[in-house]
Design goal:
about 400 residues, mainly alpha, 2 domains
């Protein structure tokens, strides 16, 4: 490659990295705008905890069923188109969440939202990996950190809108228009042309493949359950059972996403120094103990702090599960299986929490967080203990 051509490729890679990071940001911010408004949506439709949990579970069901088409779409249309068009589609769907007139409509819209999120996830990650190959070094962790920053920004927007008493439909329409336009503008800086096929990874560590992939999937799923429990039920718990003000209700989710972002941005250094196993154990212990204390000694401030510590603890768990699965089953097979386990967790966990909340209380139902942390501790021996 001549020097001039190399500089051209470098500039193209930098522009594409910025553009795909912007899509990660938009994807994180869009649904995060909805989270602080969930109590308002639940109240306007007069839903029980069980009904509300079932509607939220439809999101995971849509991601599980429709998400199986994501790879087909990327192969057919390319990661560039799927990444930005699915982001625009998510924005349109967010508007419908605010306009849902009944439980059935809300569940259907959330099911579609889950599928669209799976498409955006596959498209953006595929394009991010394409850019990463141009760089010749890892950049995907930082892209996921940008997603977390977007989620924090979206949570702040939603909490502010709730505190100001802005109508849910109006708020979500404004957010949707903002991020849809944002995605359309940055799309022109994504890499042009078809996606190149990534070279196959070397096969290694194939002993106990079935156990290993299941263990890695469950570790990642437990992290997802801890995050989703906060995202879906955190503001409901703070406002409904602890009496927090509307503007404060979303702070638990914001705290979790903020500390999770820091964990993702710093996690590579820590894992490099101590290995996945030690970091996962420390993170699970931190999350489990913090949430147990908050549930035993309930209070708004202590609960928000606990949610923040949960975020810090789970920051590296999903990457650790993905890394381990890819080492056992390369070429995307391990990642696909871990993703399937994650989506199954999203289907089962929200309605289960709702059922327990109606039968006992939401405070009892949130014991799912320390229980999930305990599962991670038990499965952590499957992770690598080697410093990298």
């Amino acid at each position: 490659m001549v020097p001039g051509e190399g500089r051209l490729v470098e500039r193209e890679a930098k522009r594409a990295r910025g553009a795909v990071a912007a899509l990660f940001f938009a994807n994180g911010a869009l649904y995060a705008n909805v989270v602080p408004r969930l109590p308002d949506i639940k109240g306007s439709l007069d839903l029980s905890n069980t009904a509300f949990g079932a509607a939220i579970g439809a999101y995971g069901l849509g991601a599980l069923v429709l998400g199986l088409l994501g790879g087909v779409l990327v192969r057919r249309f390319g990661s560039r188109r799927v990444a930005w068009l699915s982001t625009v589609a998510i924005a349109c769907n967010v508007v419908l969440i605010g306009l849902a007139p009944s439980w059935l409509a809300l569940a259907c819209v959330l099911a579609v939202a889950g599928g669209l999120d799976a498409f955006a996830d596959i498209g953006a990650n595929a394009h991010g990996l394409r850019v990463e190959r141009l760089y010749g070094r890892s950049i995907l962790n930082s892209l996921h950190g940008v997603w977390s920053i977007g989620a924090v920004a979206g949570g702040v927007m939603g909490s502010a809108a709730a505190g100001l008493g802005i109508d849910v439909a109006v708020h979500l329409a404004i957010a949707a228009a903002l991020f849809a336009g944002f995605a359309a503008v940055v799309s022109r800086f994504l890499l042009p042309g078809p996606d190149a096929v990534a070279p196959p990874a070397a096969r290694r560590g194939l002993r106990l493949v079935g156990y290993g992939v299941l263990a890695f999937g469950l570790i990642a799923a437990m992290a997802q359950i801890m995050e989703e429990a906060t995202a879906t039920w955190g503001s409901v718990y703070l406002r409904g059972e602890l009496g927090a003000a509307a503007a404060v209700g979303g702070l638990g989710f914001i705290a979790l996403q903020s500390t999770q972002t820091v964990g993702r941005l710093l996690g590579d250094r820590v894992v490099t120094r101590f290995g996945d196993r030690a970091v996962a154990r420390a993170g699970a212990l931190l999350a489990g103990v913090a949430m147990t204390v908050a549930l035993l000694v309930p209070g708004v401030a202590v609960t928000i702090v606990a949610f923040g510590l949960v975020g810090a603890g789970i920051g590296t768990l999903i990457p650790a599960g993905l890394r381990g699965a890819d080492a056992l089953l390369p070429n995307g097979m391990g990642l696909m299986l871990v993703g399937t386990v994650l989506r199954l967790a999203m289907v089962v966990a929200p309605p289960l929490i709702g059922v327990v909340a109606d039968a006992e209380s939401l405070r009892v139902a949130l014991l799912v967080i320390p229980c999930a942390a305990l599962v991670v501790l038990l499965l952590s021996p499957a992770l690598s203990d080697a410093a990298r």
